[in-house]
Design goal:
- Helix content is about 30%, strand content about 35%.
- The protein is of the alpha+beta class.
- It has four domains: about 5-35 and about 120-140, no CATH class; about 45-115, OB fold (Dihydrolipoamide Acetyltransferase, E2P), CATH 2.40.50.140; about 150-265, Aminopeptidase (3-Layer(aba) Sandwich), CATH 3.40.630; about 275-345, no CATH class.
- Strands 11-12-13-14-16-15 form a six-stranded mixed beta sheet, with helices on one face. Strands 4-5-6-8-7 form a five-stranded mixed beta barrel.
- The longest helix is centred in the middle third of the chain and has 23 residues, at about 185-205.
């Protein structure tokens, strides 16, 4: 079907935009009120060349406000240290990596932001101008998209599943028949692999993953032409920049996808895989907002771990501007970070 829809959840301190493909989340864009706009995909700036690494064909850029980026360059287009350039962010920073820029032309003056990306415009482009849904339904869709983006195991249509696991070097996609049934084993494995390519393409976009992706296909004797055609169709929305390799002798298929946005896992999780205090605080504030709407005039108390309470305090100030100061965020020593509750108080 390839029907896309757009959803916008305007939360406290955080706005989430979702694009769904045939009813399943395909993109999740998160903008927080304290994000650095200089480092968002599509931001345009005047930057200054701070230093050069000729052996790596890379320049380091000052963007202003303490923000930095790298600029890959060709030998015949080497910038000059101290030069001012107009640039666009083409890859957001990742854990341990700086943002990546491309040159638009010469510039003058000090490093500064010229224009920041607009979430609504991004949603319209990614959904091909689909009608926008807001309010309660959009919040539910955004919550579901966030949950799916953080899962490792994902079911396939018709049975079977895939596991998507990023590492420092690449992202591995393992295809498993699991409970997929059928009389013809070769036909079953072929259908599972085709479904895996389509499903993984959507999920990799949702998770914000790029770079080298390796599919461990199920079965043997693969129809390489059919798989190549299916991969081209599934990953067409990620162009330009997609490269697809043939099925190898060990039953694997490799792709290279452009890295454009910060992976959602880095956005929402700590390095050990646990939800960050900020992510938990955003969920707590959404719960407080929902309870306040369900119980007009009631006083509420949210009890949570101290680190979550600290992260939620500035968000609570923003919530108070919307619903009034009729709630309290209480820190409880020893409470697990991912356990909190909201109750009515007198």
């Amino acid at each position: 079907m390839n029907e896309r829809r757009a959803w916008l959840d305007r939360g406290i301190g955080e706005t989430r935009g979702v694009v769904t493909l045939d009813g399943r989340p395909e993109r999740l864009l998160i903008r927080r009120h304290d994000d650095e706009p200089r480092l968002l995909l599509g931001a345009r700036l005047v930057a200054r060349v701070a230093s050069l690494e000729p052996a790596l064909s890379t320049a380091f850029l000052e963007l202003g406000g303490g923000a930095e980026a790298i600029l890959p360059f060709k030998p015949d287009a080497r910038p000059v240290r101290g030069q001012a350039l107009e640039i666009e962010i083409r890859g957001e920073p990742r854990r341990g990596k700086l943002a990546v820029a491309r040159v638009l032309g010469p510039a003058e003056g000090e490093p500064r932001l010229l224009s920041a990306p607009d979430l609504l415009a991004d949603l319209a482009a990614l959904s091909h101008g689909a009608a926008l849904t807001q309010g309660g339904p959009a919040r539910q869709v955004a919550d579901e998209a966030e949950a799916e983006a953080l899962e490792i195991l994902h079911p396939l249509p018709g049975g079977g599943l895939i596991a998507i696991e990023p590492t420092r070097a690449l992202t591995a996609v393992d295809v498993d028949l699991s409970d997929r049934k059928g009389g013809d084993a070769k036909r079953v494995t072929r259908q599972a692999n085709l479904a895996a390519l389509a499903t993984a393409a959507r999920l990799l976009r949702l998770k914000g993953l790029g770079g080298i992706v390796v599919f461990d296909l199920v079965g043997r004797g693969h129809d390489g032409n059919a798989l190549m055609a299916a991969a081209r169709a599934a990953f067409a929305p990620d162009n330009p920049g997609v490269a697809i390799g043939p099925v190898g002798r060990f039953g694997t298929m490799e792709l290279s996808l452009p890295r454009r946005v910060q992976p959602l896992a880095e956005r929402l999780l700590l390095e050990d895989g646990a939800l960050s205090d900020r992510t938990l605080a955003q969920r707590l504030i959404r719960r407080l907002e929902a309870e306040a709407a369900a119980q007009p005039g009631a006083r509420l108390t949210a009890t949570c771990a101290p680190s979550v309470a600290e992260a939620a305090t500035p968000l609570g100030a923003l919530l108070a501007e919307r619903i009034g100061a009729r709630f309290t965020i209480a820190a409880e020593a020893g409470r697990p970070r991912e356990r909190w509750d909201v109750r009515t108080t007198r």
